Amino acid sequence: MDPDNHKAVVKLHKDLTRDVVNNTGTNYQYDFFNRVYGMDATQEGVFETLAKDVVDSTFEGFNGTIFAYGQTGSGKTYTMTGGETYDDRGLIPRILQYAFSKINESTDRVHKVTISYMQLYCEKGYDLLDEKSNAENLKDLPLCKMWENSDGRMVMQNLSVHHV
After folding, report:
1. Which of 28, 52, 137, 148 could form a disulfide with 10 if both were Cys (CB 3.0 to 4.6 A apart)?
2. Quick one: the chain helix, strand, coil %, rounded to 5?
3. CA 34 – CA 64 distance, rounded (Å)
4. Cα 130 from chain centroid?
5. Does the predicted TM-score (pTM) go above 0.85?
6. Regions of the chain short of the pLDDT cut 50
7. What pLDDT digit, counting tens, does each position of 119-161 carry?
8. What's the CA gap between 124 and 2, in Å, rounded?
9. What is the CA angle 94-160-140, rounded to 5?
10. d(Cα 51, Cα 90) in Å, to the nearest integer?
């Protein structure tokens, strides 16, 4: 990991255990990250360096999205929802607390707050806040569909929006 240069570098050792020469590439560098967090990252640090700016921009009139991506078991749910202690709370509770503290400080505007919560799994989107279904597992939830309309804007179908 190279958090300062926003890169993730993966170096794999060639597999010589099977008496087969492996001539495939072994070094990969990914440069398209806004930020890369190492194993020592804290929930507070991730909030301060990533989510706080997203929330601030919503108060300037922009839509905000935070997208946690990674393989199963990589810590996405922990990062978003948190652990069992107050210090381990994740981005969602921190964002809500911060947003409502900013609303309480504001006296010159009326605020409308909505929230959606979607999980992408195996290239399918699921609405995690759907109130209509009695879902017992992910596949019981309604599928969300996304496409780009003729104006070049992204459209989400079947994703519920809840007023907070």
Report:
1. 28
2. 30, 20, 50
3. 15
4. 19
5. no
6. 1
7. 888 888 899 888 887 888 888 888 998 888 899 888 889 999 9
8. 31
9. 100
10. 11
Tell me how far apart the alpha carbons of residues 8 and 83 are, in angstroms, rounded to a whole number.
26
Tokens of 110: 């009326």
pLDDT at 49: 93
Full DSSP string of 109-158:
-----EE--EEEETTEEEETT-SS---SSGGGSPEEEEEE-TTS-EEEES
Cα angle: 11, vertex 14, 15; to 5 degrees: 130
The DSSP letter of residue 50 is I
Task: Please state, in angstroms and rounded to a whole number, the distance separating the CA atoms of residues 116 and 160.
Answer: 6
Half-sphere exposure of 72 (CA within 13 A, CB side): 2
Q: In Å, how far are 32, 85, 141 from 136, measured between CA atoms?
A: 37, 26, 8
What are the structure tokens assigned to 40, written together? Answer: 């020592």
Which residue type occupies 74? S
φ/ψ of 163, rounded to 5, equals -80, 135
